[in-house]
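Cross-check.
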Amino acid sequence: MPSHYCHERIGRMMGLDISAVKDANLLIDEPDKWLERHGFTELIGLFRHDDDRKFAMDMIRSILQDIYGSQGVLAADLHYTVDYIERWLDPEMAKFMLEKVSMSDLLPSGRYGFVHRYRREWSATYRDNFIPITAYCNICKGKMKPINAPFCGECYAYLPGNVKESTEITPTFIRMLVKKIIQREVCLEVVNFVGKNLRTIVEMIVEDRRQRGLSSLYVRF
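Predicted model, tokenized:
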């Protein structure tokens, strides 16, 4: 994830209260330490590092809003959004996410429910070790064998090879960033700011990564 210095630079560029930005950085990246320091001991252990689950984000927004008003909410949403962008700049993380996108694109759209990988157990929602129910492998269309899993073993073995490593970010980056922003209900002010300054923000993150000895993918705007 970007350094706190990088987050603060971007926060200043947006004109946010720098104290709100610093507290957002610490609360999101070191939640237990921040919660203990500020007397929220009953919440210790509830959040994890960089926790972007919707309920966690809403709790963090609420805490910062109580302290800084709307500036606290904006600081939290900007932190999360900058983190999302940085993930796509990391070569290994981008490859992993592209693999997930490619696999999800291959799943039939009409599937309903999930089945346990090893037991005859069905669930209406996703749980650990559960996979989507399908009538057949969506790659070979059931030519290998009908299954109750996303892909038959023969096709699944070739999936990782279908996702080629890239030295640049494709438009997939933009689509997934927009999807994440919508799912997490990021404030419109942050969306507009990032949209107008995306190139500059990416350049700042890339420079921050370079100073920490990390390589980055090339972004094609």
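The mean pLDDT is 79. The chain is about 55% helix and 5% strand. Passed to J.P. for a second look.
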